[in-house]
């Protein structure tokens, strides 16, 4: 593996085995600034123009298509191993279908990292949280029956009704965990994150998309860190005008006075096509 460390000021709080430390360098999180909710990171790949997906191209919406990097795949597992749970939006679940049409389970592929998470960190089986206010989710997808992950669904009141109806038809009452937070079809993100921390013990949460979900977290000031893989390519505009290729930051909009800034925490690279940024949220700056 050709991952190289260029710069880091990371905390050094995780008991990394020596071969992981030699590959990545020190790794840790700061103390929780807000004990009411988890420490929330995000992880995306994006091209030079900021776009994160060939969204309109069938079977090419997956971030792996943008990245095509074994180092990025390992870093994805590395981050999954260090977070209590990871979060994806229902749109990402629907778009990222494998050739069989049953999607992915978002589990850790690297067996050493999986064992490290389970035995050294004591975090157990991965928790993968799917967010859908409407409950429009196909519960026959692989993620909901995979032995590698424990899938939860975060939804709102109407979505819960839709999901319970589907669960009853499929006979999965004992296998699907649902958290309902919000009225109608809109999830209350602030309350949902507080519920995850205070009632379910989730101290660190990794948001893996999509960009619109991330944008909602950013607008609600719920993002603490970003991990960004920069793939040195240009995706360009969509081939279908009615389907826009998203940026890694969704559709948020700021003015110079309100635009949030991020501080560089670490920088890795893999020659010749990839750079990997770790960035910490600081908010607007005064000049």
Helix/strand class: alpha/beta
Total discrete domains: 1
**Residue runs with pLDDT of under 50 for 5 or more positions:** none
Shape: globular
First-last Cα distance: 42 Å
Helix content: 25-40%
* Percentage of residues in DSSP E strands: 15-25%
Under CATH, the topology can be stated as: Dihydrofolate Reductase, subunit A
Summed over residues and divided by their number, the pLDDT gives a mean of 92
Biggest sheet: strands side by side, in what order?
1-9-10-8-2-7-3-4-5-6
CATH architecture: 3-Layer(aba) Sandwich
Largest sheet: 10 strands, mixed
Question: What do we call the CATH homologous superfamily?
Answer: Dihydrofolate Reductase, subunit A
**Rg, alpha carbons:** 19 Å
SSE order, one letter for each helix or strand: EHEHHEHHEEHEHEHEEE
Strand element count:
10
CATH C-level class is Alpha Beta
Number of helices: 8
Describe this structure in words.
This protein has 287 residues and is α/β, with parallel strands linked by helices. 26% of the residues lie in helices and 23% in strands. The chain contains 8 helices and 10 strands. Strand 5, helix 6 (157-170) and strand 6 form a beta-alpha-beta unit. Helix 3 runs parallel beside helix 5 (111-120). The longest helix is centred in the middle third of the chain and has 14 residues, at 157-170. The protein is globular, with a radius of gyration of 19 Å. The termini are far apart. The relative contact order is 0.22. The mean pLDDT is 92.
């Amino acid at each position: 593996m050709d991952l190289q460390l260029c710069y880091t000021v990371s905390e050094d709080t995780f008991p990394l085995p020596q071969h992981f430390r030699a590959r990545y360098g020190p790794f840790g999180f700061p103390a929780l600034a807000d004990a009411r909710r988890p420490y929330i990171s995000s992880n995306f790949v994006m091209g030079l123009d900021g776009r994160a997906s060939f969204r309109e191209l069938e079977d090419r919406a997956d971030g792996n298509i943008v990245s095509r990097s074994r180092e990025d795949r390992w870093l994805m597992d590395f981050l999954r191993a260090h977070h209590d749970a990871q979060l994806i939006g229902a749109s990402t679940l629907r778009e990222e279908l494998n050739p069989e049409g049953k999607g992915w389970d978002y589990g850790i592929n690297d067996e050493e990292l999986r064992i490290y998470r389970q035995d050294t960190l004591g975090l157990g089986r991965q928790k993968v949280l799917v967010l859908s206010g409407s409950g429009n989710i196909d519960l026959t997808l692989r993620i909901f029956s995979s032995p590698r992950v424990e899938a939860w669904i975060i939804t709102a009141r109407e979505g819960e009704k839709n999901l319970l109806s589907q669960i009853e038809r499929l006979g999965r009452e004992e296998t699907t965990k649902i958290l309902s937070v919000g009225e109608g079809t809109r999830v209350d993100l602030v309350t949902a994150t507080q519920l995850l921390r205070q009632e379910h013990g989730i101290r660190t949460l990794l948001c893996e998309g999509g960009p619109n979900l991330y944008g909602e977290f950013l607008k609600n000031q719920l993002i603490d860190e970003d991990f960004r893989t920069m793939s040195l390519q240009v995706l360009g505009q969509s081939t279908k005008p009615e389907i826009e290729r998203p940026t890694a930051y969704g559709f948020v909009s700021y003015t110079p006075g309100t635009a949030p800034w991020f501080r560089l925490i670490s920088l890795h690279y893999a020659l010749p096509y990839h750079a990997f940024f770790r960035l910490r949220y600081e908010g607007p700056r005064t000049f």
